[in-house]
Amino acid sequence: MYVKNLVFVLCLIVSGIGLTTAQTCLETGNFTTNSTYGRNRDLILTSLPTNVLEKGGFFNATIGQEPNKVYAQALCRGDLSAEDCLTYVNFTAQQLITNCTNQKEGFSWDGDIPCLVRYSNQSFFGVLALDPIQEAINPNDINDAASNITQFFQVWGELMEAVATKASMGSSRLKYATGVADEIQALMQCTPDLSQSDCLTCLRTLVRRYTACCRTYQGGYVETPSCRMRWDLYTFFAPTTDTVRISLSPPPSNSPPDSTKNTTATIKENGGNQSRTIVIIVVPIIIFIAMVVLICVLLRKRRKSKRQMKTTGDDDGLESLQFDFKAVREATDNFSESNMLGQGGFGAVYKGRLQDGREIAVKRLHYESGQGKMEFKNEVLLMAGLQHRNLVRLQGFCLERRERLLIFEFMPNSSLDQFLFDPVKPRLDWDRRFKIIAGIARGLLYLHEDSQYRIIHRDLKAANILLDAEMNPKISDFGMARLFAADQTRDRTRRVAGTFGYMAPEYVKHGKFSLESDVYSFGVLILEIICGDKICNFRKDGVDLLTYAWRNWREGRALNLVEPFLRDGSGSRSEMTRCIHIGLLCVQENYASRPTMNSVVLMLSDSSMSIPMPSTPAFMLSASTVQSEASSSSTTDHNSDQCSRNEVSITTLDPR
């Protein structure tokens, strides 16, 4: 778990964004660009990583004089190493600088980023803060995991209270505790500057909040600026000798309470022989009952799984797509490493060859973390009905025991990101890139307007564009896709998930997703295809990709964005300029100003069609942020990559 998290964030520092911190930029007051407060804010947040490392994982700091004084705090989770602590705080602080562009208060304390970073124009040190509260859930039903719900919740409550008490009794440097009760795993932490009573009050408030909102789910977290609690049915922290451990008591007897007491008394009175006799009789009965209950639970889950797979009403169609697990295992040589095409956060993809000679790509979803079941159902039901030359075709699926496999047509040229960003791969000429842009646009138009569903992809990026033998683009990975009604164009979610850099501002900040949020991702993708660099890696003149493209466009030097390899080639300069123009239209701050995919396809296909002027793109860096980044780049590498995967969301821990 920790190796995975560390590698993930190092990739995010060295090359990207898919995890996301849940920045809460509080609207309690704003500062202006290049103001003294803004410069102080950026400076103190930039200094936090080194200071928190020197102070052992917790640090309070101030800078400046009133009214431009800034208070800041950094706290790492209790089980983090010093190196991990530095990495996470560095990333989180930079994200606050980038995303809270002019708010005087902000904090970030999120599920898979195990650190707190907070700043304000008012002192909050040692002050209990119960607002704002953010909660997240693992949406799987607890009834699927606990055979005895009454006993489960009793032990759950005991564990939460024990862990909260232990955390509150910590020192002025660390108030952190973990606990285990069989499969129940819990973690709690307060900012160490809270008193013992305030810490306990804070944690108990979170437990009550979770119980009130989310008790029927298999895990989740609740957090405030002062404390957080998280629990789940799998290990997400490093247990130690200090971890609170509670054992589940044996199942309650079916006999009335008085009868139980009398039986116990009788056993004690009648001596060892009668005790052994009762044990010989009772133990097999208990084992038999447990086996019956287990079989009933397994049958119930199996029936539920079958019902879920048939919710579209096309039972015969889905059954015809089902593969035998043994056949898939043989096709992939038992999922050998030599056949692995790639590894993602929720599973690996393998190349396979069926007995009839067909080549396939098999996506094998992880099962040990509990994440993937919803994604599996989502992708099967969606992709079974999608038929378009610019979408990857689903060949079938396998749902057998704990295995969940998705079988796709094999794409011999892998994904677009490898051709754009891998220096070893041959460079794509402009004609090929323009064809890919147009193909992606047609595929997205099909999802938005022409398929039997209206579908929002929500994770459009170069890594999710596969290329067939003729280099035709095919949109893939529908694990986060959402279906809309025919007349619906937007919705809101409590779960923000995707890949930073490609997510629209209204989605990142408010959970609002729409046809226009996909258009935004497409605009970023166009600009990446043109410049040949990832949005998270791009830095020219000290600014990010969108800022650089916008400045050069306004100054009449749009072709500066084009990769030098293309500028020196024979590609059409007017097509390049037109694509940059379209890309900037797609990434406008105001989602209502972005074009529809129908308009995009027309603009790409008809060079005589007039195109409106774009307005300012979203997520442009302020001058103070750019200056701060440039000044710190000589000692740190935090700007090199911010495109990590957001697999645990702001508010809902559910499969990607």
TrEMBL record:
<keyword id="KW-0472">Membrane</keyword>
<keyword id="KW-0325">Glycoprotein</keyword>
<feature type="signal peptide">
    <location>
        <begin position="1"/>
        <end position="22"/>
    </location>
</feature>
<keyword id="KW-1133">Transmembrane helix</keyword>
<dbReference type="InterPro" id="IPR008271">
    <property type="entry name" value="Ser/Thr_kinase_AS"/>
</dbReference>
<dbReference type="GO" id="GO:0004674">
    <property type="term" value="F:protein serine/threonine kinase activity"/>
</dbReference>
<keyword id="KW-0808">Transferase</keyword>
<dbReference type="InterPro" id="IPR017441">
    <property type="entry name" value="Protein_kinase_ATP_BS"/>
</dbReference>
<keyword id="KW-0547">Nucleotide-binding</keyword>
<dbReference type="GO" id="GO:0009737">
    <property type="term" value="P:response to abscisic acid"/>
</dbReference>
<keyword id="KW-0677">Repeat</keyword>
<keyword id="KW-0418">Kinase</keyword>
<feature type="binding site">
    <location>
        <position position="363"/>
    </location>
    <ligand>
        <name>ATP</name>
    </ligand>
</feature>
<dbReference type="InterPro" id="IPR038408">
    <property type="entry name" value="GNK2_sf"/>
</dbReference>
<dbReference type="GO" id="GO:0005886">
    <property type="term" value="C:plasma membrane"/>
</dbReference>
<dbReference type="InterPro" id="IPR000719">
    <property type="entry name" value="Prot_kinase_dom"/>
</dbReference>
<feature type="domain" description="Protein kinase">
    <location>
        <begin position="335"/>
        <end position="584"/>
    </location>
</feature>
<feature type="compositionally biased region" description="Polar residues">
    <location>
        <begin position="641"/>
        <end position="656"/>
    </location>
</feature>
<dbReference type="GO" id="GO:0005524">
    <property type="term" value="F:ATP binding"/>
</dbReference>
<keyword id="KW-0732">Signal</keyword>
<protein>
    <submittedName>
        <fullName>Receptor-like protein kinase At4g00960 isoform X1</fullName>
    </submittedName>
</protein>
<feature type="domain" description="Gnk2-homologous">
    <location>
        <begin position="19"/>
        <end position="124"/>
    </location>
</feature>
<feature type="compositionally biased region" description="Polar residues">
    <location>
        <begin position="260"/>
        <end position="269"/>
    </location>
</feature>
<feature type="region of interest" description="Disordered">
    <location>
        <begin position="247"/>
        <end position="269"/>
    </location>
</feature>
<dbReference type="InterPro" id="IPR011009">
    <property type="entry name" value="Kinase-like_dom_sf"/>
</dbReference>
<keyword id="KW-0812">Transmembrane</keyword>
<feature type="transmembrane region" description="Helical">
    <location>
        <begin position="278"/>
        <end position="299"/>
    </location>
</feature>
<dbReference type="Pfam" id="PF07714">
    <property type="entry name" value="PK_Tyr_Ser-Thr"/>
</dbReference>
<keyword id="KW-0723">Serine/threonine-protein kinase</keyword>
<feature type="region of interest" description="Disordered">
    <location>
        <begin position="629"/>
        <end position="656"/>
    </location>
</feature>
<keyword id="KW-0675">Receptor</keyword>
<keyword id="KW-0067">ATP-binding</keyword>
<feature type="domain" description="Gnk2-homologous">
    <location>
        <begin position="134"/>
        <end position="236"/>
    </location>
</feature>
<dbReference type="InterPro" id="IPR002902">
    <property type="entry name" value="GNK2"/>
</dbReference>
<dbReference type="Pfam" id="PF01657">
    <property type="entry name" value="Stress-antifung"/>
</dbReference>
<keyword id="KW-0597">Phosphoprotein</keyword>
<dbReference type="InterPro" id="IPR001245">
    <property type="entry name" value="Ser-Thr/Tyr_kinase_cat_dom"/>
</dbReference>
